[in-house]
Amino acid sequence: MLLAQDAGLSLVFSRTKHGAERLKKQLVAAGIDAGSIHGNKSQGQRERAIKAFRAGELQVMVATDVAARGIDIPGITHVYNYDLPNVAENYVHRIGRTARAGRAGTAIAFCSPAEMGELRAIQKVMKLAIPVAGGSPWEVEEPAAGKGRRGGANRGSKPGGSHRRNQRRRRKAA
Question: Which positions ≥6 away from 70 have C-beta within 8 Å?
């Protein structure tokens, strides 16, 4: 999806610091100019990465929720939620990084069956259903007692998986 999109900057959110760094390395290996910002980076490293992203030297910035609030970078055309946030309100802050100042923007969320609870919470906070862009909705199976999520066990299947949720946001100039 990153290679197919129009020119512009993309912000990709990961739930964890390690996941963000791993995803950034995979994107770089695939030939995409990407950087990362998260809590394991020094303030100087984060500032240099943001400066390069803002200048267009990096096409993609992979970040944890450290970038969801307070960072205003013009030209972000796409926000990808590789992992849905644990706190539904953080989704609103994440997608708010695009479609700023009257510009159009696109927010895309990848959602695995294990993340259906997070998706329902996001839809409740936003008071709208997020349409399916690819694949099809699945029946919700609640995890059995004692079987929680473990460290992103099925993360490797997301990019090629068929279960994607998409929301397009358009803001009109005030």
Answer: none
